[in-house]
Amino acid sequence: MERLYAAAPINALFASSLRIVGEGRVRLAFDVGPDVYHAAGAAHGTIYFKMLDDAAFYAANTLVTDRFLLTTSFNLHFTKPVREGRVTAEGRWVSGRKRVYVAEARLIDSDGDEIGRGTGTFMRSRIALSSLPGYSAEGE
Where does the signal peptide begin and end (predicted)? Predict the structure, then answer.
């Protein structure tokens, strides 16, 4: 899953790294700087959404070994603006193990403060994980 994340073309625009920390749990790290600011000089909400969605999505997809999940809905809350520094997104699977999965994520700034949180629902797709660039089953 870490290689699949790294292979996604979108991550060339939003440099970040993914680490699976256990079944149903991931951690993403990224740096915020002026290149992602909105007009008022803080990180644009796009950054919050992308990192929260990615963390929750990959937390859920750690439980699925054959299919790619798709985000079907995502609810997020901005709790504090961030202007600069390292931000960590912590994703955690909440429920579901068949067709629909629920996972949540939170964003933590370099001071240890929560700056955002979100919850998403993810559905199994018809897309085989083995067909995607960067993915290979464990042990291969």
Answer: none
Q: Which two tokens stand for residue 111?
A: 């001071």
Tokens of 94: 């909440």
Number of independent structural domains in the chain: 1
* Residue 113's CATH number: 3.10.129.10
> C-alpha distances in angstroms, 46 versus 10, 33, 68, 113, 116?
12, 14, 23, 19, 12
Strand partners, 85: 32
Q: Which tokens is 96 given?
A: 């579901």
Q: Residue 45 pLDDT > 50, yes or no?
A: yes
User: When comparing pLDDT for 139 and 1, which is higher?
Assistant: 1
pLDDT band (50, 70, 90) for residue 137:
low
**Rounded to two decimals, what is the model's pTM?**
0.93
Query: Which of these, 33, 26, 40, lies nearest to 87 by C-alpha position?
Result: 33
Q: Note the pLDDT of residue 4.
A: 93
- Kindly state the DSSP code that residue 132 receives in the 8-state scheme: S
SS3 of 82, please? coil
Tell me if 138 is assigned to some domain. no
pLDDT at residue 56 is higher than 50:
yes
Range of the domain at 59: 2-131
